[in-house]
Write a structure and sequence with these properties.
By secondary structure, this protein is an alpha+beta fold. It has 14 helices and ten strands. The structure holds adenosine-5'-diphosphate, 2-acetamido-2-deoxy-1-O-phosphono-alpha-D-glucopyranose and magnesium ion (MG).
Length: 363
């Protein structure tokens, strides 16, 4: 807490700090909730940005600064909107920058804490799934006309499945911590599906589907709902950059339709609930369908399968590599996560016809 207290002195936040406590369940950054004594002052989120993963933090923060300012401007011009709750608000450092770098080279940022929010790791009703779909769809349409040129690519090839598979292949070959023999069945599962899973990337590479500004981390806990479970704010903007609509749709399907946890040790709990798929799709397409091309729409259901596959590949790679990327809670956590993602994919494969029908009905 002392270190964080010293860091906080470098930001222009108002109020007397009473506590700084670890917060949330993100796998990448270190997040703290900062509480202030005065009723009239905001509480805050303080984050140490993972600069091992994000190699150019000033570039990343410039993206976030541009996106949050643009959304704020739109909200300020929307009657009845609340810009401090419906968008993220950065608190500048004392030198005016959007982040502070400490003596050890760590990068920190601060946001206004959005009060009375609900953040869900598992979605249990179609109403919540619908709200998430609406919010991520709206986010995409809100920043579609962002001025000032393309956003900086904070992690190059983030959703390039060919590259992810190549990394898995090489990591298994190198076998740095002697785990390769433990993942033979999972690797076989992965490589048997490689061709189908390359479809969206290859359409993009041929210029047949457009690059848009996408969020790229639309896990359901990256949208905050309000105390009535209505959509409030899209958060976690580290990977907002150019991408295909499929990545945003698919990652939300991965997390909003799973009846189990992302890392469920009990695979019998992991299934795709088709009612949740329908509700999310309805919300997402209500906000985006007028801008999507027929080919984008034709491949949305496939995107629902692609993201569990791709994140499963990433968890598996990190496991074989010795857990250098995702935060883990126990020794075989990344393998457990990968298995849960592949179980979800199998459930989707059984229901793929219904997924395609739902997209068609809502397109
Ligand atoms: P990570 O990249 O590690 O997932 P996030 O930016 O998603 O980091 O933050 C982690 C968690 O902190 C979120 O899931 C959410 O619960 C909470 N959080 C982040 N920003 C805010 C905010 N401005 N107001 C309230 N809660 C927030
Ligand atoms: C990470 O930051 P967080 O926890 O919202 C990861 C996503 C994965 C997700 C899996 C920058 O998201 O890509 O889908 O974990 N973020 C990054 O839960 O790699
Ligand atoms: Mg997050």
């Amino acid at each position: 807490m002392n270190n964080q207290q010293a860091i906080l002195k470098n930001f222009s936040a108002k109020g007397t700090i009473v506590s700084v406590l670890p917060y949330g369940s993100g796998h990448i950054n270190d997040t703290y909730k900062v509480e202030t004594a005065e009723k009239e002052c905001f509480n805050y989120i303080l984050q140490r940005i993972n600069h091992k993963i994000f190699k150019n933090v000033p570039g990343l923060m410039d993206n976030i600064d541009r996106v949050t300012r643009y959304i704020r401007k739109k909200l300020e011009n929307t009657p009845g909107a609340d810009p401090n709750r419906q968008g993220l608000t950065l608190i500048p450092a004392l030198d005016g920058k959007s982040y502070y770098q400490d003596q050890d080279g760590n990068f920190w940022r601060m946001y206004i804490f959005i009060e009375d929010n609900r953040s869900y790791d598992i979605v249990d009703t179609p109403e919540k799934a619908y709200e998430g779909g609406r919010m991520f769809g709206k986010f995409q349409s809100m920043i579609a006309d962002l001025p000032g040129g393309p956003l900086y690519e904070t992690i190059p090839d983030f959703h390039n499945i060919d590259m992810r598979l190549e990394t898995l292949r090489k990591t298994i070959e190198k076998d740095p911590v002697g785990r390769a023999s433990l993942v033979t069945a999972e690797a076989e599962f992965v490589f048997a599906r490689a061709e189908e899973m390359g479809t969206i990337l290859h359409l993009g590479q041929k210029g047949l589907i457009p690059q848009r500004i996408t969020h790229n981390d639309t896990k359901f806990n990256n949208v905050l709902l309000d105390s009535n479970d209505k959509g409030l704010c899209v958060i976690d903007l580290d990977t907002v950059m150019p991408g295909y609509v499929h990545y945003d749709f698919g990652d939300s399907i991965r997390t909003s339709t799973n009846t189990g946890a992302e890392d469920d040790p009990d695979l019998t709990r992991v299934e795709m609930d088709i009612r949740l798929f329908e509700a999310y799709t309805k919300g997402f397409l209500e906000e985006t369908r007028s801008t999507l091309t027929p080919l984008e729409l034709d491949n949305l259901a496939l995107a629902g399968k692609l993201l569990p596959y791709m994140i499963g590949v990433r968890f598996l790679t990190d496991y074989v590599d010795g857990d250098n990327y995702f935060k883990i809670k126990h020794e075989h956590h990344n393998l457990q996560r990968a298995r849960a993602q592949f179980k979800l994919l199998m459930s989707q494969e059984r229901q793929f016809g219904a997924m395609q029908d739902i997209v068609r009905r809502n397109a």
